[in-house]
Amino acid sequence: MVMLKPCPFCGSDAVLEDLGGAVTSGRYFIRCPKCKVAQDSLWATKQTAIKRWNRRVIIEPVKHVEWIPITARPMTTDERTKRSEELGYDVEYDDDETFVYTSVLPEENEQVLVTREFSCGKMKKRYVEIAQRIRNSWFSYSDEYKVGTHGRPIAWMPLPEPYKEKKDV
Prior knowledge:
Blueprint: E1 15-18, E2 28-31, H1 46-54, E3 68-69, E4 72-74, H2 77-87, E5 99-101, E6 111-120, E7 123-134, E8 137-140, E9 152-158
């Protein structure tokens, strides 16, 4: 006979319960006597109840990716003038275009998670969004038309891999 796996919640030994012959649709189920979790269905055979209890999702460790700080310094007046000439318009003093980034940045047009910090007087707020870098500007996917948003980007990380369903073993 197949062994019961321990309770997936507390790790205690599980128990096969038999409701007897009075139930016609099914009579077997498995429960944990310690944390009281139980199957929510009755099964016609012991083997089916055990097979259903022993089904587990295989969870692989999540690859933890660290936030990468974004460091920047304001452009000098000469750098800002040169940048304005390159772009064909005057860049404002606090615009993304007026910073020289001094840290590792994602590839241009690569979608990444970005932490932004918004300051207004004494109030500071941080939030995370999906964005991409085009030249010196960061564009958000949470805004209509992908326009730049408020707040200075202070860190970024690659997007995680999409969810992939694993088959039972």
